[in-house]
Every structure is written in structure tokens, then in C-alpha cells.
Amino acid sequence: MTELLLRVEDLAKSFPMRSAKSGKSLVKAVDGVSFDIAAGETLALVGESGCGKSTTARLVARLMQPTSGKVLYKGLDVTTLSRRRMRSRRPMVQMVFQDPYSSLDPRMTCREIVAEPLRVQGRYRAKDRHRIDELIERVGLNPTFAERKPGSMSGGQRQRLGIARALALEPELVILDEPVSALDASIQAQVLNLLADLQEQSGISYLFISHDLAVVRHLADRLMVMYMGRVVESGRSEDIFANAEHPYTQGLISAVPLENPSQRGARTERLSIGEPGDASNAPSGCHYRTRCYKAQDSCAETAPTLHSREQGVACFFPEARGIADIRPMHNPRAELTLVPAARAGDSA
Amino acid sequence: MSPSMTALRRPTQSAPEIAAPKNSDGSLLRVENLRVEFRTPAGPVPAVDGVTFDLAPGEILGIVGESGSGKSVALSSIVGLTRGEASGISGSAHFGGLDLITASEKELRKVRGRDIGMVFQNPMTSLNPVRTIGTQLAEAISLHYKGLSRSELKDRVIAALRQVGVPAAEKRLGQYAHEFSGGMQQRAMIAMALVNSPRLVIADEPTTALDVTIQAQVLDLLVQARDELGASIIIVTHDLGVLAEIADRIVVMYAGRMVESGSVYDIFDRPRHPYTERLQACLPSLETPRKRLLTVAGQAPVLGARPSGCAFHPRCFLASDICFTEDPASTTVGDGHVASCHHSDLMAAHVKEDL
Predict the structure, then answer these.
(1) How far apart are CA A97 and CA A107, in angstroms?
(2) A19: which strand partners?
(3) What is the pLDDT of residues A65-85, one digit of tens each?
(4) For chain B, which domains are there?
(5) Which of residues 8-47 of A touch B (CB under 8 A)?
């Protein structure tokens, strides 16, 4: 077993809400989330907007104080640390944000941006300048960028800079909050490759947050699917893609765009319907039951639970379905060997 | 699937038709040699250069390219949204006999919102934050159809919201944009685009800000609008995956120009421009994951810094001497399939090998 870097235990965060009708209430943004991340591993946290994945990330980075639960960095619970003591632990966990336009100070040069974490830690020395410039190069930016300001940079270049800043303190875990969803498809691939390379070189761990399973599939060792604040399925990435058991996971898989127009004819009904309801008014029992194709009356009574933190599914009626059971597949090689003459689907 | 869209057909008290149902050649929209340049202190910068395509009634056309490729500028110029002192627009865009490029602002105002519906990328900034969703939808109707009673208007607004899958439409029309989720805002935008049963819907990155689950539903809605209302659709996106879902034909743009166009099968299965092939190859695949994705190396040129010869040569895996100096002409490489590449023959062989 590799070294355990991060352990999250029964993490919860509620926000107070005021509404005209019901007066004061609490919204459970994160509700009993537990997971581990080992050294060198990538855990992907997947779900739609509002499912609590970004809140979880902020709690893990302690940008926010949890309502209850623990976040342990190498065995030390950081949720109770004072600001000063927390600062000394920060270098271990760093974060890359979704929007590279609003997360970089437009008045600072690239070099200043990447050096800022060192300055905050009181560790910046003149000789570090060389290392900062190396870092800028390491994320694939031209060294001449060091003197420039982010205003003149493209989205992909800015995100590379955000990654360089996150690496400045040599963290062991980097939290990536939708790091490529604001980028062009062509640039997404570059940034995903960069992240894979950095991990291979330095053995860094990632907590990767995304709503797109196709992106996640390339990077994740393990997968955790969240819905309305709760984990509904978790396990090894390969296992989940081979056998997705929760109807919600299956819905996310069915929503990924087709890979080739020839698959349109074979399209089965989408498993992802509607959109997440209002978190302040979550359905009783299983939160997902209002969108679920397998829901029974009993799903409204009690909430299904996840049996283990490593793998499991929080559903009363799980049924394993692989990608090929959920959506038409496109595999030119297989198609050529199986149907040599006509293209499958043309005759239909 | 959402309820049938038939209730969105045009109101009976239809105003006199501004545009004919189609052009004399049978197309709904025919864009020829569209060129848009922006005047900057450093001189004029061409953002769109020589875009030509036509769109049949009921057809879904995808325009794909990276940021800065000119795809959005081309689209907004067609409906007159880039007019101004700082821009120069030439070429033509015939829509039902009317040339949208030379049409007066008054003529355009009659066509926009009625014959042409528009969906933009960011619904939060496209919807008015201080007016209710219902008021905005009602305005979209009454601007073009005078003399509808309040209750007729309200019925149509409710029908429009319902048909794009907004639950409890009667209640929600009194709400403001900020009370809608991102997905619901985009549905409201689409309701507004469809409310007058337009012949053409132009959608600029309509799903880019949305979750994949909602993206899938929004794409289904657009296909439904085509199937049930007979609308033609132009969808602009940076993501070829979206077009695999819905497009009939695809135009690929790079650095302001069209580099390839053809049927959706030409583009996906028989690309003849290296850029098209790369745009597809760089998409992460759910079916066949790999640790390293293929990429389009480097990045798109910025406006006004167009590389010599073929603009794509600095990023191209097939580039040879001629690509540095000579701009490739667009060549017909198949039925309705056009590519601008010196090595489109090599591409044909390359794609075969790959299979």
C-alpha cells in the first residue's frame, strides 16, 4: 500500500438559507463525504453543477471551514488548526481554479504570480527567481512570458500559469477544480497531457474535479460520483467504466457526446433526464429518485448508503452496466472486421 | 423528450412576410465571400476572410474552430451584430431573397427574432436581469406580432417555456433570470429564440457553459426544433463532439478562413485537412482512453498575425516547403466536400492507414 496522503472523514458543510416561505433553513451542500487519496494517485470527483464537488474541494483545501467531519493531511486533522499553523501546512495542498481569467491578478507579471505562494510563505529568496523561470518553462510556456502580464495570454496559457503557481511550493496534492472546462477542446488535450506528465515526473497526487466523464477517464485512477452533496458511487475508475452501477453514473455516461455521427442511428434513450433540483428542498430518501429510471416508492423512505469508503454504490436497485450497454460504441477497427462491406448503420 | 413543439407554430394573425421562405436557388441562407475586418490603431485586421456556404431548409450546419478563428464573428455579422464604425463587412448573405449584409437596420430588426432566432453562449448575460422571464418572452413576441391580447401572449409564453422543458412554466414566468439554474436559463433563451417559429436558429456555443447532462438535453431540443418546426440551425462550437451529435454539415474555420467543409461524415470519417483530423483526434474518448491525448500542437494565431502561406503550417504535421509560402486554394475533394490544403491527397492516404 502506498502512503496515504489525504483522508477525509464524514465531511459536511451546511449553508444557512433564508427564504420568504420557509424562513431560515440549512442547505446541506456536502453531506457525509469520506475518501482517501494515496501518494501519486488521481481521484476524480464527478457530478453536475451544484452537487457539492467544488465545496468539497474548498473544504479539503481549507478555504472553507466544514460544519463537521475531518480532513487529515498525513494523519494531521487540519480542520482545527489555527490560521498560522494552517499556513505552515498549506504547501502540501495547492489548488488550480476553473476560470483562468479571474484567478490570475492582471497587474502582476507571470513571474510575480508564480512566486507569490513563496512570498506568502516567507520563503522567497533572490535565488528562487531562476527556479520560478524554470517552472514557467516546465508547464510549457515560453520563458519570455516571465515578464509579461496575463492580459495578453490565451486561456490555455493562463491555465498553464495557474498550474505553475500551484506547483511553486512543491505540493504533494494538487486540487484541480474543472481545470479544462473553460478551454477550447484542442487546448484541453494539451493541458490534460501536461497534468499527466507532471504527475509522472514528480509523483504528485491529484483531486480532479469535473463534470465530464470522457475527460476524467483519461486521468483518474479512482472515481467518486456526487449527487446533491452525497457520494452515490465510488471505486476504481476502470471498474466503474466497465460496470457502472448507480443509475446516475449511467446517466452521466449516456450524456457524453457521441464520438462519431454513425452512432446516431443506434442511440438508445438517454438515461440523464431533467436537472438537479433545489438543494434547499432535497427529495426525501434517495435524492436522485426524482430523476431515476429505476426509482420505486421505497426509495423515498430511507437514504441508501455507501458501504465502504473505497468502493460501493448508494442505491437500493443497483444494476451493473458497461459503457457498451449504455450507449452505442464507435470502434472503426471492430467495424471493419465485423462488417467489411457496408458501414454499419447505413442500411437501417 | 420534451412535449411536442407544435404549439410554437406561428400565431394566426401573422404579420406580412418580410422574407420569402427561401432563396431562388432553393437554399434558405446563402453566404458568399463574407469578409469582416476590424479597424484597429495598427490598421485593418481581417477577422473573417472569404466565408462561403449555403444552408438548406431544415438543415443543421456546424461551424467549428478555436477561439479567434472568426466563427462567432462570421455568425454575428450575418445577422448584423458586428456593424459599426470600426468594422468593414463585405460579401453577401441572402436569406429569403433579402441580403442581410446590405439590408437596412430596420429591415434586419424585422427579421431578427422573427425569422431568425438567436441563442448565445452565456444566458446569464444575454437575459435582462431586471425583467421577468415572462416579460422578456412576451416582448419577443409582441415586437413582431401586434394586436395579441394579454392572455393570448401569456398562453404563448407558457407554451414556449413548457416546450423547452421548463417545469411549472406558469409559476416560472414571473421569475427573474437569477432564479433560474444555468440549464434553465439556456432553456429560456431557446424558448425566446423559438417563440416566433423562426426559419433559422443561430446558436453561438449554446452548450459551452453547461454540464454534459444539460448539454445533451439542449442539443436534443435543437434537433426537435428542426424536426417539428422545420427550422434550419447554425451552431457554432469549438467542440467537434457536439457536432457528432447533431450536425448534417460542418464548416471548419481556422484563422478567419474556411479550411474544410463537407457532410458530417466527410468531416469525421474522411477529413482531408490535417487540422480537421487533429480537432477530432484531440477529443478525449470515453470508449478508448489513453494516457496521452493527441493534440494540435501550439496555438491558433492571434488576429492580425497570420502566418505566411497556409496559416496552419506552424502547427501542421504534414507541412512542407510550399506550405510556408503559398496559400492553398480550396479544392473540391468529393461531392460537396471542399478542403484547402496542399496535401489533401496525403491526408486521404493518412486517414486510410489510420483505420
Answers:
(1) 18
(2) A23
(3) 999 999 999 999 999 999 999
(4) 6-12+22-247 (3.40.50.300), 253-354 (no CATH)
(5) none
The grid cell for A311 is: 468502493
**Which phi and psi angles does B87 have, rounded to 5°?**
-130, 150
- Quick: pLDDT tens for A278-307: 777 889 999 999 999 999 999 999 999 987
Core vs surface per residue A274-306: b (16+ CB within 10 A) or e: ebbbebeebbebbbbbebbebbeeebeeebbeb
Residues of B with Cβ-Cβ distance to A252 under 8 angstroms: 212-213
Q: Are the beta carbons of A93 and A171 closer than 8 angstroms?
A: yes
With beta carbons under 8 A apart, name residues in chain B contacting A290. none
Could you tell me the residue ranges of all domains in chain A? 1-103+172-184+203-348
Indicate left, alpha or beta for A22 from its phi (over 0: left) and psi (-120 to 50: alpha): alpha
The ipTM of this complex is 0.86
Q: Which amino acid is at B124?
A: M
Q: Which residue has the higher pLDDT, B91 or A266?
A: B91
CATH of domain A1-103+172-184+203-348: 3.40.50.300
Compute CA B290 distance to the chain's CA centroid, rounded to the nearest angstrom.
31
A151 in contact with B, Cβ within 8 Å: no
pLDDT > 90: what percent of chain A? 70
Chain A residues in contact with B212 by the CB 8 A cut-off are 211-213, 252, 255-257
Give me the total of CB pairs closer than 8 Å, taking one residue from chain A and one from chain B. 140
Residue A13: which residues within 8 A CB-CB, separation 6 or more? Answer: A28, A29, A30, A52, A55, A59, A64, A66, A67
